[in-house]
Amino acid sequence: MKLAIGVTAVLALLLLLAIIPTDRLLPDDTPPGSRYARMLRGGPFLRMAARRSRKERPPLSIETMSAVLRFRFFT
Predict the structure, then answer these.
(1) Which of 16, 18, 56, 64 falls between 20 and 30 A from 71, CA-CA?
(2) What would you report as the CA-atom Rg of the chain, rounded to the nearest whole angstrom?
(3) Which residues make Cβ contacts (< 8 Å) with residue 12, sequence separation at least 6?
């Protein structure tokens, strides 16, 4: 009986940790505007949503990628 109560408590705690975003527990060390990185720090449901939105995004053009790289490395 005690084992069943303990297992139930552990499973309930794991479910709470999966639902509650963990970014409230972690310091915000992501750069501003990095919404994808913030979503990755959330629970698994947010991670699945981030993965799904990343797959549905159309590929970037060469001009956009080169502009992003120039901005990242030369500013």
Answers:
(1) 56
(2) 19
(3) none
Distance CA 9, CA 26 (A): 24
pTM over 0.85: no
User: What are the residue boundaries of the structural domains of the chain, listed by start?
Assistant: 2-74
Distance of alpha carbon 18 from alpha carbon 36, whole angstroms: 18
Residues 6+ apart with CB under 8 A from 23: 38, 41, 42
Q: How confident is the model at residue 1 (pLDDT cuts 50, 70, 90)?
A: confident
pLDDT digits (tens, 9 = 90+) for 14-39: 776 666 655 555 555 555 556 665 55
Among 36, 46, 44, smallest CA distance to 18 is for 44
Measured distance CA(35)–CA(28) in Å, rounded: 12
